[in-house]
Every structure is written in structure tokens, then in C-alpha cells.
Amino acid sequence: MNLTKGDIPKLVRQIGIPASVGFFFHTMYNVVDTFYAGLISTESIAALSISFPIFFIIIALASGVATGTTVLITNKLGAKNDASASRYAIQGVGYGLIVGAILSFGGYFSSPFLLGLLGASGSYLDIALSYINIVFYGTIFFVLPQVINATLQSQGDTKSLRNVMVIGFFVNLILNPILALGWLGFPKMGVAGIALATVLIQIGSTIYLFGKAKHTSLWTNVRKRSFLPAMRIYKDISVQGFPASLNMVTVAIGIFIITYFVSPFGAAAVAAYGIATRIEQIFLMPTNFLQTQISQTIKTHKALQQ
């Protein structure tokens, strides 16, 4: 897709609609997790609910790295500097690996305190940790798909991410009962199985998106030394991506605060809040994401024409 040509409303439809469809299925993915957690126990739903703001911070920071990388790649493509765009794409992946490792390490050691602050204790805390710790083991695979997708999105490809989200939803429908409930002779893992299913899907998403990205012009003739850290580029990505991350982090903090005040009423109240949040997401996320895509499409279109 050539983002320098065509009218903006058409580009919005071509870019925004596939992305919006993908994020609708991403929202339903979370609903599936909540559904199967409910089949296990009320505490299991509550465990997912109190883990959500912590998990959302991972997504927020990963999104910031991806947004910064996308913007910088787009600017270089608009300047007809494909070599520099390629360098930003590759360095973005390297930066994503570092951010993922830091989040994994920091999250694993801080989660007992944060979950305890939200009122989790005893078996309730153990269940929550069994979920979030597996997520932290696979944090890199939550960051990489978003950063790799920057290569695709900067060139107008939102269909690949849509495919990942739609396929991930259906794979999650299959893996959750197998791993969480012990279907087909597998050991019953509870919410740890829900987390493991998510990590496995993220690994598959990373492989798929990388396969798509490496066939673009930005990943041709890549050398190993291209992955050596370039602090100037890391700084550029941070400057561009931090405001986007901060916006999402404030949402996570808001959810954390609400959960904090709901927690004294017990695990059932936290579980109820988590279920209500999922229902709210069904109606709000696709619309909000489409609005974001319209704004980003306009900015991308202008950047590429400069």
C-alpha cells in the first residue's frame, strides 16, 4: 500500500478497518480468558482482575516502543531514506528485546508486593502469582510482536496484525480448556494454563509477524552488526514513544486505583469488577482503536508527503 497517494478517507478505511476488526477479537480474547477462569473459581477471575493493571503496563510500554519505532520509520520512508528506515526497524526490535527483559525481571520481583497491595493474600495471592509470573516469563514475546509490526504498519499493512489477533482468538479458545481445565488428558493447570496459552500464542504471533516483516524492503540485506545497540536511535524511539506509553500507563494506574478500593470488599467484588471491565471493553475498544487509527493515518500520510 502506498500511503503517499490516495485520499485520506480511503486510507483510513484500508488501514483502520482491519486493525479495528483485529482489536475486537483481541478484546474477545480477554473475555475468553475470563470465561474459563470463571469455570475454575471466583478467586481465579479475581486473580486475573488484579493482575490486569500490572499486565496492562507491559502492553503500554511495549506499545510506546512500537509507536516510536513506527513514527520514525514512517518519517524516514517519507524522506525517501530507506536505509535509515531499515536501521530504525532493526534497532526497534533490539530495543524491544531490552525493554522486554527489563519488564520481565522487574515485574517478576515486584508483583508479590503489588498484588499484596491490592489485597491478595494466601491462596488468592498464590493463584494470582501463578498467572502473572508465567506472563512475566514470556514478556519479551508481548513486546516483540508490537515492535516487529511497526515495520508493517509504517508501510500500511494492518492486515497482518489483524490476522494474528483473529487467529490468536480461536487458538485461545482451543488452548484454554486444554491447559486450564485439563482436557484431552493434559494436567489441569488452572489460571497458570490460561497464562501459558497466552504466552504460546504470543510466541506464534512473533514468528508470524517476523516472517511477514523480513520479506519487506526494510529487512533485505540485514547484517548481524545492524542489531548492535545504537543509543541515539534508542533515545529517538523513547522520545517519540514515551508520551504514547504514558497515556496508556495512566489508564493502568486508574484501573489499579479502582481495584485497590474494590479489594476490601473481597475476591468476589474484584471478580465482578473484572467481568464488568471486559464487557465495557467489548463496546469501547474497537471504537477507540479506530479513532486512533484515523489520527495515525492522517499523521502518517502527512509525514510521508513531506
- Globally, the shape reads globular
Largest sheet data: none
Supply the number of helical segments.
9
Question: What average pLDDT do the residues reach?
Answer: 85
Q: Report Rg.
A: 20 Å
pLDDT below 50 for ≥5 consecutive residues: which ranges? none
- The helix/strand order is HHHHHHHHH
Count of individual domains: 1
Q: Considering DSSP H and I runs of 4 or more, what fraction of the residues is helical?
A: over 70%
Concise description?
With about 300 residues, this protein is mainly α.
Descriptive notes:
With 306 residues, the protein is mainly alpha-helical. It has one domain. The chain is 82% helix and 0% strand. It contains 9 helices and no strands. The mean pLDDT is 85.
Notable features of this structure?
306 residues; mainly alpha; 82% helix
Topology:
Elements: H1 8-40, H2 42-78, H3 82-117, H4 122-137, H5 140-153, H6 159-180, H7 191-213, H8 231-262, H9 267-305
Helix pairs in contact: 1-2, 1-6, 1-9, 2-3, 2-4, 2-5, 2-8, 2-9, 3-4, 3-5, 3-8, 4-7, 5-7, 6-7
